Prior knowledge:
By secondary structure, the protein is an alpha/beta fold. 19% of the residues lie in helices and 14% in strands.
Amino acid sequence: MNLNSLKPAENATKLSKRVGRGQGSGKGGTSTRGHKGAQSRSGYSRKIGFEGGQMPIYRIMPKRGFKNISRVEYNAINIGTLQTLAESKNLSEITPEVLLANGLAKKNSLVKVLGRGELKAALKVSAHAFSETAKAAITNAGGQINVIGAAEAPVAE
């Protein structure tokens, strides 16, 4: 076997369609584009969402709701989760850095502590926001709350 005798398997390669090369080619004249209309012209490109003149789906479907540009997205952590974390890691203080290290929060996310679950350990908890039930549960267990600033939502006047 020599390199010059190698060739691809049968039907592995296809010749490109050579259009507009005269009537003898079978693809001359209109070059397989048909007669007249936008698609027969050069430079034609179909608009995104064009459905052949039918009313497009994005115009049929009604708009719903709105996006609040002032929304502050929090990463919610329940006090039951804080209890299990404190027991397993022997912690007395919980901060967003501790939650990040244990995979409970993302790098730049704001953390809000919610009140689901039971808290027995006296923990010092630092977070960007607390629910009323979480505040009550932490203080009743003998813990402390530290609200991290600069996470307040802008107030519309």
